[in-house]
Amino acid sequence: MGNDGGSIPKRRELVKEAAKDPSTTQAKETQNEQQEYRWSNCALSNQPLRPPVVSDWAGNLYNKDAVLESLIANSSSGGGDLMKSDNEATRRPIGSLRDVVEVKFQVEDEEGENEQQQRTSPVPKWVCPITNKTLGPGVKAVYIVPCGHAFAESAVKEIAAETCLQCNEPYTAANIIPILPTSTTEKTRTKSRISQLHEQGLTHSLKKPPNNTSNKKRKKNPIANNPEPVPSPNNNNKPPNPAANGVIHNPSTASLTARVLSEEQDRAKKRKQAANENVKSLFSSGNAPSSAMQKHADFMTRGFSIPAAGAKR
Fold first, then answer.
1. Tens digit of each residue's pLDDT, the chain (313 residues)
2. Which residues lie closer than 8 Å to 151 by C-beta, 6 or more apart?
């Protein structure tokens, strides 16, 4: 370059100011935008949340139909029990519906809206049944395992009960799961809880994981698990009985069917015997007496009539 009247810019001329870390206000605004999106959209399909809504051990919200579709697709493709999510908080896979809990939100009843309008609304408005606060980005919300009822965190802390406030099902403090947690302390607590449950052989819903070892063995050895029936030599001539196989449960119908089948087999045997006699008639037997024509016939003239005058004496 050069000799063209131009100049080569230097870095200090291009970069006037160094990159600065976002301020506290900017960080909160970004976090609020992310929380609003996660409170209104499924973490797996990125579609608007619609009941039934389920949550995993990390407090992420999913549409139940999206979880089912993903599990069916992974099982049919042979991908095991791994279901990936776009959310970085989901570090452990969802292998079955026992790894999620259905969150039972209370929907706010607005005046002048019927049930159909509430269903077609873009995002349902969820409220705490105790404090009547709107559950969303501005309010910390939790749900209880295994019943799944959702409350505001402040209501659960103030009451400090050992049973659910709606269904009276007992629970422990470790099974209070924060919904879409933001603090490091809450994320660490949920991780330690799921690790302890896995050591105990339990899932997020406090149930044992499904045992798929028998299904895997059946897939590997389909012939050994479904052997072909070997016909008995003593029952070759007996007609099949559909009632014995459990096809026909009516005894009169089963007996009539068996009789029709036996008659059909008898007719088939008669047809085979008639066909055998017709075939045998085409060939001459060695013990049958030969006629005068066959005595004077050779292999060149066999099958043709020879006049009596030309026959050898």
1. 555 667 788 887 777 776 677 788 888 888 889 999 999 999 999 999 998 999 999 999 999 999 999 999 887 776 544 444 444 444 456 888 999 999 999 998 765 454 555 555 556 789 999 999 999 988 899 999 999 999 999 999 888 888 998 899 999 999 999 999 989 999 999 999 999 999 999 999 999 988 754 455 555 555 555 555 555 545 455 555 544 455 566 777 777 788 888 888 888 888 887 776 666 666 555 554 455 555 555 555 555 555 555 555 5
2. 128, 129, 130, 131, 141, 142, 143, 144, 165
Token pair 């269903």 is at which residue?
119
Rounded CA separation 178/142 (Å): 4
Q: Angle at the Cα of 52 (from 44 to 67), degrees rounded to 5?
A: 30
108 token code pair: 């706010």
Q: Where are the beta strands (DSSP E) in the chain?
A: 53-55, 61-63, 101-103, 106-107, 126-127, 141-144, 150-152, 176-178
168: phi > 0 → left, psi -120 to 50 → alpha, else beta; which? left
* 77 φψ region: left (φ > 0), alpha (ψ -120 to 50), beta (else): alpha
Cα 27–chain centre separation: 40
Specify the DSSP element, H or E, that contains 279: helix 251-280
| Cβ atoms 45, 60 nearer than 8 A | no
Of the candidates 54, 105, 103, the residue with the CA atom closest to the CA atom of residue 83: 54
Enter the tokens of residue 184: 């490091």
Distance from CA of residue 39 to its chain's centroid? Answer: 27
Residue listed under structure tokens 């809880």: 193
Are 44 and 67 spatial neighbours (Cβ–Cβ below 8 Å)? yes
